[in-house]
Every structure is written in structure tokens, then in C-alpha cells.
Amino acid sequence: QRSPLNDFQLLQDTQLQNLLHAVVAGPWREDVADAEECARFCGSLLDCRAFHYNRSSHSCQLLPWTQNSSHTQLHYSKGCDLFQKKDYVRTCIMDNGVRYRGTVAMTEDGLPCQGWNYKFPNDHNYIPTLQNGLEENFCRNPDGYLGGPWCYTTNRTVRFQSCGIKSCQDAACIWCNGEDYRGAVDRTASGRECQRWDLQHPHSHPFQPDKFPDRGLDDNYCRNPDGSERPWCYTTDPQLKREFCDLPRCGSNLPWSIRGPETQPREATTFNCFRGKGQGYRGTANTTTAGVPCQRWDAQSPHQHHFAPEKYACKDLQENFCRNPDDSEAPWCFTSLPGIRMAFCYQIKRCTDEVPPEDCYHGTGEQYRGLVNKTRKGIPCQHWSAETPHKPQFTPTSAPQAQLEENFCRNPDGDNHGPWCYTTDPRTLFDYCALRSCNDDQLPSILNPPDQVQFVKCGKRVDRLDKQRSRMR
Amino acid sequence: MVGGQPGNSPWTVSLRNRQSQHFCGGSLVKEQWVLTARQCFSSCSEPLMGYEVWLGTLFQNPRPGEPDLQRVPVTKMVCGPSDSQLVLLKLERSVTLNQRVALICLPPERYVVPPGTKCEIAGWGETKGPSDETVLHVASLNVISNQECNKKYQGQVQESEMCTEGLLVPRGACEGDYGGPLACFTNDCWVLEGIIFPSRVCARPLWPAIFKRVSVFVDWIHKITHME
Asked: Which among A183, A182, A212 has a CA at the least distance from the CA of A197?
């Protein structure tokens, strides 16, 4: 069930160009079904090291080089994916590194490697071929040496030496529960090969890399996108859906409090409110939004779970306090009611993300002529006369009465919620300003509108559906 | 939804996180816009990659291939005025309106729903009982005046909020219903008058429920949907 793509690392929307005019890539094959078919072609050819796959035309181009080859350059190219053989681009080794095809050319003591084509200063019997991958003076392991890739050195007194390239297992360790692990191990603890995150076979799953851009779901490497105890992956074994990976812990014998910044919550710690999704919330709220008391994290009743406090040392799963150990939407807890397994603690207020107001306005602020020129989030306002990043609907010419000077906050359209401005953030068209209503103002009271209100094309439903359901019941 | 019944509410949408789990409700106010509660989202500027709105189904976990189900990615979130606790979600594309998916009307600006008006809330949230929260539940509630409501809440209810009467047998919103609609029937149409926002408790006996009053922010909704 393994995919041939498992041997490749993907760079999305990327093309690899060779800058030498004399070197030409292979032709584009137009008749392929998918990237897996290209991977099958490339995988079987010793002189194929990478391939381009065009997602819209379903075509591919085999390449005899990688990004580590000389005279090559990566380019952004929408719709074109670059797949490179892992053996050529991985900077660590699997097993004893017999398949390593990287470009390290220095021994562990810092001695430069001798080219495999040269017999001087150290004579040897190796002849470079496509099969053994002996290339330039790069470290290789043609004889399965237990110390990993090695080379003959340019020092006559040291005939050969290991290059000290770390195994992928040891190259990166995990802090906390390994959510930030971005290493290159692609095997589970039992030695099964991982399924690629971007494939849905043999196991279908919700962790599509595009949906989780911050989770590093690259290729088929071990990751922890769901607040599990440690990194894991779906396996290529149809009989076993997912399994943990065996990865070393960083400084595991130090207590959490002194391990250093890597172990701290990614979000800043808060106590009376929560920021973002509340991973940094360390307060003592211990009921759900609905007031149901939380179950203690160290208890397995009424709900069984895997969030044992000792396994989630960085998450501070104390007592029955609301926490977010798994990247949920907000702090949550298991509830003390058998019928409700878990619930969010939305009663905890969000910490404000607004800057303190610098001035105030009367009424709805149509007469505000002050100098505040940033939004409530602190984003600088766009000049009213500017056309980028947003093309304004109100300009000094179109609304002269509003005195749209420079980039000061104004209210040219009588917005009930106060002065505003177009923002300099391309993603936010406009926002309200860092202003408050002046205290001496009487809040406008709610007025009844005219009795007759007409609605068009909305608010109609077919209640027959309900009746059908009742009849079915 | 405590004390509700399985029912139909074609403007009530389910907000889905990156693992396709329901986490809040919302209301379809335009073909490409959904109104919901700010509290449901971690930030006004957080990228919404992977978040979706599901419409056209009565089931919280519809079977794969359910023909009426529409799944539309969220592309943008716009936070409402600071005191609104509302957000508008822009969808990647317009939804298809049909018997299962419909727009809810928006109220006139600053409209006050008369006390006694019959309204409905809908959601897939906790039922706290034998009823099955995997299907959409609807509960009827009658509006009371803010003055009446403030007798119970000692003046804490603001003009930008509205209340429905508290019943002896609890009936109202609960976990998972937040962000969903309070729809009231006016002039032969269902109008979005309130938004369910996280409160301290699920429907309590004799305690009125408090909602965000949409009519106070309807000008902002029109401004956003026209300008963006």
C-alpha cells in the first residue's frame, strides 16, 4: 500500500531551473494520471533525481538534478510542484546511510573529503557508478559501514573517516508533546512506514496539509497536529491506522520550569482571560460555559481520556481547570456529567486585542476632526487620497464636508459605530478607530422604525420538510 | 439546545473547524455571508484556512455524499464594532439557495421586537436530555422587554441586547449553539433579531435568555456586505 511518492519530498508551487544552457531537462510527459505515476517513472530510473508535476495539465517532467546540484535555482511557479528524491535532499541519514546522496564533503573531524575519482593521496578500488552514487567528494556509504557515510580524506595520514552525519532519529528531538517537531523521521515506533499527509490512502483522514499550514504536515514525516501525546503518523499498513513515532526527548530529565523557552506555551501565558485559542491560559476557571463543573484531568471518571497531566507536562493540566492542550478552538474540559463528554469554557473572557483609545468623539463622530490615525487594532490608517492598498469609496473630493484630511479617522458615511478609516493592511478594508465615545454623551436610544416593513427574498422556509420528518418518525 | 425539538431552520449553518468538527452555529444573511459570534473565533486576523460552513443538512454528522449538504470554505472574517461581539464570515463562493438553504431577513436598523413576539432558536448544541443533538433542534421562545428582563438581571442588560422569557421547564441555547440565530416571525418572514452568544449557563428555569440585538448592528452588516 505504500505510495511511490513516499520516496520524495514535495515543494509546492515550485520549479527547479538549471542555469546552464547546455543542460536540458527531459520532455514533459502529458499522459500521466497523477503525481504517483510520475514518481513511479522517476523512482525506477537511476539518473532521475526529481520531477516537476503540473497539477492542471497532469503532466510531469523528470529531472536529473536537485536543488543541491550546482547551477540550479528554485522559482515560485503556481500550479507546478517539485518532487525531489529524499535521499538527495535529506540532511540526515536513515539506517546506516547506504542510500544517502547528500552533499556533505567533510569528515567529522573537519577533514575535506577526497574525490571518489581520485586515487591520491589515498588509493582505493571504488569506481563511481550510478548505482553506488559515488559522486564528487561527497560522503557516501558504499560498503554499509556501521558508522554511516564516510570518505577518503585529503590527509595522507587519515585514510578515511566517518562524516558524522546524524541519523534522522537523533537529528531532532521533541520538546513537550512535539507539536513543533519538524524532523525527517518517516517511520513509526514499530518500523512501519508513514503514509503521506497529502494522500488519503490507505487511510482517509482530516489532516490535509493545506488545511493545517502551521502544523508542518510535510510529506510522510512524523508530526503532532492534534495534541497527541507525541508525534505520530498514519501508517502504510492498511491494518494499522496510526501509530506513535519513537523520537528522543530534548532535556527530558530537567523539570519543566527550568527547561527554557522552547517548553513554554507558544501563546503568552494569561490568567484572567485568554488569547487566541487559549493554549497559554493558566487561570483557574473550572466550569464549562454552561456552568457544569469540570472533571479533574488526573481522573478517568466519568470520562476516560488520554490527557494525563504527567504526559502533558507543558500544558499545565492542573486540577479541573479549563485548558487547551490539543489546539481546540478555546480552553475546554471534560465535564463532570456522564452525558456531556467535553465542553468549551467560553465564559472566560478573551483578552482585548484593541489598543487604548487616544481620544473621544461626540454623537456618532461625524464632527470628529481630531488627529487619531490608527485603528482599534493599532493598524495605521490609509490616506483618504491614496488608492492603495484599498480604493476608497469616500475621498476628499467626493465627501468634502467630511474633511478627509491625511489619514485621520473620520466618519464620512455617518456610521453609527463611530469614526473609521481605510487601513494600510491589504487584508482589512476598513476598521473603526482607536477612539471612544466621550463620557458626556447621552447614548442614543433605540427607536422603533415605521410599522410597515417589507422583506424580499429572505426569511421564507418550507415547513413541509418538518412535517415529512414527523411523519417519518 | 435544551428543551427543543428536531426541526428545520434553513438559515442556520454549522461552523466546522479544520478537523470538520462542529464548534458553533451561524446565520446565513447573504449568499456569501454568515453572521456569528466573535467568541467562536480566536482572532479577528487569524487565517481561516481549513474552516468551513456547512449548510443544507439537519444532521450534525451527515453521511458522505448527502445530496443536500453544501460545504463552503470561509475566506475572510470581519469583526464587528467592539461592543457587538459579532463577526461576519465571507464564504469562498455563494451558496445555492433551495428548500434546505435560505437567507434569513435582517431587521430594520434599531428595530425593537415587541414583547410577546414568538421567536425560534436553532442549533446542534447540547440537549442536556434524552433528545439527540446530532440533528438540528429548534426551540420556541417569546420575547420580553429589556425592562422586564432587567428586573431579573438587575440592570445589566444593555440596549444592544434583547431577552426571551424564562420558563419553568428550561428551554434555550446550550454548548455548541453559540453564534446561532434567534429568528422572529414578522410580516410573513423570519427575521434575524438576535444572536446566541456564550452566556454563563444553559437555559435555567425562570431565567430569561439574553441575545445580542442584531438591529443595533445591521448598518454595519450592510456596510460590510456592500463594501467587501
From this structure: A212
Sorting pLDDT into bands at 50, 70 and 90, what band is A256? very low
Q: Are A14 and A80 in contact (CB under 8 A)?
A: yes
Contacts of A290 in chain B (CB under 8 A): 126, 174-175, 200-202
The chain-wide mean pLDDT, for chain A, equals 90
Q: Over the stretch A176-210, which tens digit does the pLDDT of each residue have?
A: 999 999 999 999 999 999 999 999 999 999 999 99
Shortest distance, CA B44 to any CA of chain A (angstroms) = 9
Give B-chain residues touching A465 at CB under 8 angstroms: 8, 99-100
Residues A272-288 have a mean pLDDT of 93
Q: Is B201 in the A-facing interface, judged by CB distances under 8 Å?
A: yes
